TrEMBL record:
Keywords, in A-Z order: Oxidoreductase
PROSITE patterns associated with the record: ADH_SHORT (PS00061)
Gene3D superfamilies associated with the record: NAD(P)-binding Rossmann-like Domain
Coiled coil (UniProt feature): none
Database matches in SUPFAM superfamilies: NAD(P)-binding Rossmann-fold domains
The name this protein goes by in its record: SDR family oxidoreductase
Stated family: Belongs to the short-chain dehydrogenases/reductases (SDR) family.
InterPro entries in the record: NAD(P)-bd_dom_sf, Sc_DH/Rdtase_CS, SDR_fam
Length: 260
């Protein structure tokens, strides 16, 4: 992936900042997007000095229409961009029913609306060039109904479903599309919701450097779905086969016998 230009959202900390560091170490030029201009600028300078790459900063709040439009325009019009790391996201404190609906709506705007718009633009642009890479950061909670905030889980299920469909639409156009499903990762997302990652079982929490290194290795290997902590990906394939088994029966002209 050397000599390419990657646009990374949510790049000021956590997974996004770690993508920036590891892609810069591979020789990629970068465009860093996040709200915190000071942190972005400090990260950009450190990457220029450490790796000799070009790094530009675009401070933006992707929940604001005008900021999202500005980043979308950059993605559409900057012909050097070859990679989109669609990482920006948030969660809210508490479970769905007790959580702030205002915060939940902000989360939906960031996790779903912004990611969808940037995915759509990148898909159109990269398809027209017959080249490009899109990484959409979802979560293992896309597969979970039994715990955590249901609205957050639903946003990540949306990301997974959208990405899988994009993979179908972009097949044959030389555009790589990867869905990354992190588990618990040592990032600031916990502190932002009043929790501490140190309260979680250590064996369940992956270091962010390990997570991103695995994600990039999965991308190199052509994985459509990367779940860094799952040793046996046959489990995922079995999951997909079970889902596929029901598809011939989900829309028929008569109700099932149990309803008659």
């Amino acid at each position: 992936m050397s000599h390419q230009l990657a646009l990374i959202t949510g790049a000021s900390s956590g997974i996004g900042a770690t993508y920036a560091k590891q892609l810069a170490a591979r020789g990629n030029d970068l465009i860093l997007v996040a709200r915190d201009a000071a942190r972005l600028s400090a990260l950009a300078q450190s990457l220029r000095e450490a790796h000799g790459v070009e790094v530009s900063v675009l401070a933006a709040d992707l929940t604001r229409h005008e900021d999202l439009a500005r980043i979308d325009s950059e993605l559409r019009n900057n012909t050097r961009i070859t990679t989109l790391i669609n990482n920006a996201g948030m969660t809210v404190e508490g479970e769905f029913i007790d959580a702030s609906i205002d915060q939940t709506q902000t989360m939906l705007t960031l996790n779903v609306v912004a990611l969808t718009q940037l995915s759509h633009t990148a898909a159109q642009v990269f398809r027209s060039r017959n080249a490009g890479t899109i990484v959409n950061v979802a979560s293992v909670l896309a597969l979970v109904n039994e715990q955590a905030n249901g609205a957050y889980n639903a946003t990540k299920a949306f990301v997974l479903s959208l990405t899988r469909n994009m993979q179908r639409e972009l097949a044959g156009h030389n555009v790589r599309v990867q869905a990354l499903l992190p588990g618990l990762t040592r990032t600031e997302i916990f502190q932002r919701t009043g929790r501490s990652v140190n309260d979680l079982p250590a064996e369940m929490v992956m270091e962010v450097d390990d997570l991103v290194a695995a994600a990039l290795r999965g991308l190199d290997d052509g994985e459509a779905i990367t779940i860094p902590s799952v040793e046996d990906m046959g489990l995922w394939h079995s999951f997909e086969q079970a889902r596929g088994a029901i598809l011939p029966f989900i829309s028929l002209n008569k109700p099932a016998m149990r309803y008659r």
